Amino acid sequence: MKTGVLPRQTVLFLFMCLFGLVMVYPLIWLVGASLKSNQEIFGSLSLWTSHAQWDSYRKGWMGAGQYTFTLYFINTLKLVIPTVLLTVVSSTIVGYGFARFNFPLKKLFFTLMISTLMLPQAVLVIPRYILFKNLDWLNSYYPFIVPAALATNAFFVFMILQFLRGLPRELDESAKMDGAGTFVILVRILVPLAKPALVSAAIFEFIWTWNDFFNSLIYITSVKKYTVALALRMALDNSSSAPWNQVLAMSVVAILPCILVFFLAQKYFVEGIATTGIKG
Known about the structure:
About 75% of the residues lie in helices and about 0% in strands. It has 15 helices and no strands.
């Protein structure tokens, strides 16, 4: 019986290694291409170069205009960090309300919230733009930060809600017997237990907001307030012959925060994905 199990494990291990290599190959090519010259990028099939041009990172960081990527990274952090924090906090509060309380029209409100997941983003572009224009929020980060504070992303609300539903209500009842209020129960009991779901929501929102190009292009018009995604696109527009090695070098730098955040929180992320939506 053991002789039959070992080959299956070996084949599975080799398949996973091959699948992992396929998934990582674009990243390997990206790093290798960032060290090549423009001619070598389009004229060579090799992943690496014998004459690495590390200068592409320095030149790419200086940017193509009057601003460097230091400003663009600071701008992106100014946009991403408040958006992530407010999304997690607001989604937790709304999910807690749906999971633990009964109130009039609860099912109707829950249905309306879930139905927003079915709306294509293209349908919301024009109404949102008109709304933010009337509020004089264009060319600012308010179109990203304020909706995050109002739990407008039903996906995260539902994800946290499903996790909270899996936590036994006896925890709430025992805390109430000790004199704890609803806010104390949420902060001191449920939030620590729901850490995997909260971290998963934070990682998703961080990566989506960090890489968001479309919405940033619509709402941000001043180059001084550009994010990294817009700055990378601008680098291709400022010259007739694009410095692809510099653009790819900045692309490598741009994805590092996402990779770093994912691997630092990988334990909670995997646990959150494995449990959210299954309990209940």
